[in-house]
């Protein structure tokens, strides 16, 4: 037997006794262990330039994206993500994301936006 086969057989021994459901649960535990640090980085390490880039990919021009991100930053919600803010505003007002962005640019009340997130700042 080659080294890879021997290694595999040894490394899977602790999995042999598990049912399919237990294996599935173990898989998702391990997957979450891998993904959670990446998601946390995304939550804690955003910047206005990253958020402008995201908003531009949602169909806004560079000046529009800058205005939206500036308003989001003024609301203290940059960590929530400008795209997420646009989504929440569009859902709350029954608008598409373009109209939601335009309402933010036009001066939508920042406290109202914060309230969409439970008043979090």
TrEMBL record:
Cross-referenced Pfam families: OAM_alpha (PF16552)
Classification via InterPro entries: Cbl-dep_enz_cat, Lys-AminoMut_A
Domain D-Lysine 5,6-aminomutase alpha subunit intervals: 7-117
Molecular-function annotations in GO: catalytic activity; cobalamin binding
Ranges annotated as spanning the membrane: none
Name of this chain's protein: Ornithine aminomutase
Organism, scientific name: Candidatus Wallbacteria bacterium HGW-Wallbacteria-1
């Amino acid at each position: 037997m080659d080294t890879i086969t021997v290694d595999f057989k040894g490394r899977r021994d602790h999995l042999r006794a598990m049912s399919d459901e237990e294996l599935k649960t173990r898989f998702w535990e391990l997957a979450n262990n891998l993904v959670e640090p990446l998601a946390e980085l995304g939550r804690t390490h955003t910047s206005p330039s990253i958020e402008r880039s995201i908003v531009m990919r949602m169909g806004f021009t560079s000046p529009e994206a800058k205005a939206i991100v500036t308003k989001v930053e003024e609301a203290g919600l940059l960590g929530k993500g400008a795209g997420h803010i646009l989504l929440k505003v569009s859902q709350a007002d029954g608008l598409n994301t373009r109209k939601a962005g335009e309402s933010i640019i036009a001066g939508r009340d920042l406290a109202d936006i914060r309230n969409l997130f439970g008043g979090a700042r």
